[in-house]
Design brief:
4-stranded mixed β-sheet
């Protein structure tokens, strides 16, 4: 995962990233508990710290990211998905932060990202109970952007995610990166500070060739050809 993140982080040709699993029915089931029970206590902290760092790096990718959940995403698996900008789930997907059942707490950002997404009260209920929800319930509470009926391919969420990624990829890539920065920064501060971030990031798109291409394409009634410049 670390190598995959670094392979796309500085590639200006990448317009959107979809993270998926090729294991049918499983997105990511979190930590290997059989491995964890044998792990010396002094190794647990560094292990979780590396996990947290990897998830943070994925969340910090400059381009839009989408998690395609065609199966189970629990514990660290859901935390990985929560680090994405958007999530698409199949109706058969199962999601939850179940750490309290093991007398621990989420350690990969779950206690911070989940409340920001669904609200503190709903997030606390999910974490307090360790409840696992399906795709439809996840969509109802705002945990995922879209829920699609699973089909025989077992890749319904991935297919929908690709369609969403293709839709995003037609937009100005620099603008997409600035939108992501503005929203992420603004979500952590008061409105006045957030508006200042927006102004600063808007200033960065003004001198771009893509902005002029967008205006010219509009005038000529054609699709723009953005280059990320």
């Amino acid at each position: 995962m670390e190598e995959a993140v670094m392979s796309v982080k500085f590639d200006n040709n990448v317009r959107a990233v979809v993270i998926r699993s090729e294991v049918p029915g499983i997105f990511c089931a979190g930590a290997d508990l059989k491995e964890r029970i044998k792990m010396p206590q002094e190794e647990v902290g560094p292990f979780v710290a590396r996990l947290r760092k990897t998830i943070l790096e994925f969340g910090d990718l400059p381009m839009p990211t989408i998690a395609a959940l065609d199966g189970v995403a629990v514990g660290g698996g859901l935390e990985m998905a929560l680090s994405c900008d958007m999530m698409v789930a199949a109706s058969s997907a199962k999601m939850g932060l179940v750490e309290a059942k093991l007398a621990i707490i989420p350690g990969g950002g779950g206690t911070q990202r989940l409340p920001r997404l669904v609200g503190p009260s709903v997030a606390k209920e999910l974490m307090f109970t360790g409840r696992v929800v399906d795709g439809q319930e996840a969509a109802r509470i705002g945990l995922v952007n879209h829920c699609v009926d699973q089909d025989d391919s077992k890749e319904a969420a991935y297919t929908r995610s690709l369609a969403l990624a293709r839709e995003i990829a037609t937009q100005g890539p620099i603008a997409l990166r600035m939108v992501k920065k503005a929203v992420n920064k603004g979500n952590e501060v008061d409105l006045a500070t957030g508006l200042a971030f927006e102004e600063a990031y808007y200033a960065q798109v003004i001198p771009t060739q893509d902005r002029m291409e967008g205006l010219i394409a509009f005038k000529e009634k054609r699709k723009p050809k953005f280059k990320g410049e």
